[in-house]
Every structure is written in structure tokens, then in C-alpha cells.
Design goal:
The protein has 13 helices and 6 strands. It is mainly α. Helix 3 packs antiparallel against helix 4, helix 3 runs antiparallel to helix 9 and helix 8 packs antiparallel against helix 9. It starts with a helix and ends in a 6-residue tail after the last helix. The model has no long low-confidence stretch (mean pLDDT 92).
């Protein structure tokens, strides 16, 4: 049973915790010298890094509130699912923190989310191994679902959202759209646990976006970008609508394909900003989906680029809702 009151409380709590923690984090990061260059702007100004810490604070704090409401006021949802989700998200956040501070090797960072997925593997071992596939219906993958598909899903999702990043507002904006769609689908399908995770992420990302929108005052860092994908995988796994996740990451898959063709460039993925504030690919070469948009548009502002990507994610979110929000669209 879906209780909208607790969802509202979690949404507001995640938003407020992130929003009010953000000025503190920005100030502390600048004092500590944990800053990055905003490479898509003239002069490449320095901006506070690791703002994703506030997303973790918002999400974990909001889910702890949900647990407290369940304990003391009798709200009903699966505690095991929420605890496993929180543990996996916390491990992913720790991976992101370590990478932001010490710049891990790419291959290690790529594979570590598989370890973070272990709580979800343990949870699935006691639950269903069936995935509902478009046009095919329910398919039981058995042990393969537990030991292969769950770790792979968490790892792939985390790395995809980590790649399509670096432009003011894109990560938090697209993430907000994704989790709004997941929350709607979870409510429509009666999955309170998936709804709680998605609504907590939505509240935290919406608050973060206020500080990350153009011109950004803070970057989320890998702690945030990895967490977005990891939380997406967690929520759709718990909600048993994994195909929703596959639809929502389509823009990220397009970016992955272009970057794979270019052997995953770690530099020069950004735009060359001209005097009119328009971004064009550095050297005219397309190394990712964002640079492809820059080239096809003949130059686009960073704000326009973010809005275009958020709108594109919105289209896939709408598709997912139409396909899987069966209680909304009978």
C-alpha cells in the first residue's frame, strides 16, 4: 500500500537537508581547496567540488526518517529493501569520495560498484528473479539474475551517469526527471520501497540543482554522478521494473557509444566558449554526445545544452511512464 503522506515527508526532508547543507559544503570545500575549473566558461573559473556529499546527506537522512516513521508510527514498507538500498548507495558514495580525492584508475573505478551491489544481491537471493521485458512479458533468469545481472546493472548504470556530466545543471536536471518518472511508476505499481528511494533522490537532486544551475556554484563530483546511476538501478530492481531503467538511460547509452568510439577521452570533452557564450566542440571534433549537439546546432549555450538534455530525458521518462504506469494508464 502506498502512503502519500510518508512520501511527501521524505521528499521535503531530502530537499531541505540538501538545500541547507549546500552553503556549508561550498564554503568548506573552498577553504579546503577542493575545487574544480568550470571548463565551459571563459577563464575557467574555480567552483567548489564534491557537492554530491549533500545529496548523500539528503537521501540518507530522508530514508532514516522513513525508518523512524515505520518504527514509531506503524507506516508499512519493507525494511530489508530500504536498508539494503541505503548500504549500497553509501558504498557507492564512498567510491565516489575516494575517486574525487585521489583520482582512481578508470578500470578500478568502473568495477568497484559491483562490490557495492552485494547488499542488493543478498536481497534478491531471498526474492524474485523475474524481469518483465517489453513485448516478451515476465522472464525468470534464475541464478543469473542474482549473481550477474544485479551487479552488472548497478555498475553499468553508475558508470553511464558518471560519463555524461560536466555541464552546469545536466546531471541534477536529468537525474531529477529520471527519479520523478521512477517515483510515478513505483506508486502506480504499488512499490512503496522503490517510491521511497526515488522520491528521496528527487528531493535531494532538486535542491542540488538550485546551486548547480548555470552559472554553477558547486559541482557534484563523482560522488554524485555515480550515486545517480546506482540509485536508479537500485530503485528499479527493488520495484521489479528493471526495463524502466533501461529506457531511462538511453541518452547515456548514446553518449557511451560515442565516447567508446573515441576510446573514452578523459580530456577535451567540453566545449570551446566563444564571445557570444556559444559552445562548440574543441578542435571541431566530436568526443561525446554533448559535443555532437554542439556541432549539429552550430553552437549552443551551456544553459541551452542542459535544457535540451533534460527535455530529451523527459521524453524517455514519459515513454517509461506510458509503458509501465499501468495503474495510471489502464
Amino acid at each position: 500500500m502506498i502512503d502519500l503522506a510518508i512520501l511527501a515527508a521524505v521528499l521535503v526532508t531530502a530537499f531541505c537537508l540538501t538545500f541547507f547543507a549546500m552553503p556549508v559544503i561550498i564554503r568548506k570545500m573552498k577553504v579546503a581547496g577542493i575545487v574544480g575549473n568550470d571548463v565551459n566558461k571563459p577563464g575557467k573559473p574555480e567552483v567548489a567540488e564534491m557537492g554530491g556529499l549533500t545529496i548523500v546527506v539528503g537521501v540518507v537522512g530522508a530514508l532514516l526518517l522513513a525508518i523512524a516513521l515505520r518504527t514509531f508510527f506503524g507506516y508499512s514498507f519493507g525494511l530489508n529493501e530500504i536498508m539494503a538500498a541505503m548500504l549500497t548507495m553509501t558504498i557507492i558514495a564512498l567510491i565516489g569520495i575516494f575517486d574525487d580525492l585521489f583520482d582512481m584508475r578508470k578500470d578500478i573505478k568502473t568495477l568497484l560498484p559491483m562490490i557495492a551491489a552485494l547488499p542488493m544481491v543478498a536481497l534478491a537471493a531471498a526474492g524474485s528473479t523475474v524481469i518483465s521485458l517489453p513485448f516478451l512479458g515476465p522472464v525468470d533468469f534464475g541464478i543469473i539474475y542474482i549473481v550477474v545481472l544485479i551487479p552488472l546493472g548497478v555498475t553499468v548504470a553508475a558508470n553511464l551517469t558518471n560519463m555524461l556530466a560536466g555541464f552546469n545543471g545536466i546531471e541534477a536536471g536529468m537525474g531529477s526527471v529520471m527519479f520523478a518518472a521512477v517515483a510515478i511508476i513505483a506508486v502506480a505499481n504499488g512499490s512503496m520501497e522503490a517510491a521511497l528511494i526515488a522520491i528521496a533522490m528527487l528531493g535531494a537532486l532538486a535542491a542540488f540543482l538550485r546551486f548547480n544551475w548555470y552559472p554553477a556554484k558547486v559541482f557534484m563530483g563523482d560522488i554524485g554522478t555515480l550515486l545517480i546511476g546506482g540509485a536508479l538501478a537500485i530503485s528499479v530492481i527493488i520495484g521489479s521494473f528493471e526495463s524502466v531503467g533501461a529506457i531511462l538511460v538511453i541518452p547515456y547509452l548514446a553518449d557511451f557509444a560515442i565516447k567508446a568510439y573515441n576510446r573514452f577521452p578523459s580530456t577535451r570533452w567540453w566545449g570551446d566558449c566563444n564571445s557570444k557564450g556559444k559552445l562548440r566542440p574543441l578542435g571541431g571534433r566530436v568526443r561525446g554526445l554533448a559535443q555532437l549537439v554542439m556541432k549539429l546546432s552550430g553552437g549552443i549555450s551551456e544553459k541551452g545544452l542542459a535544457l535540451l538534455f533534460i527535455a530529451a530525458e523527459g521524453l524517455f521518462a514519459l515513454l517509461a511512464i506510458l509503458l509501465y504506469g499501468r495503474n495510471i494508464f489502464p
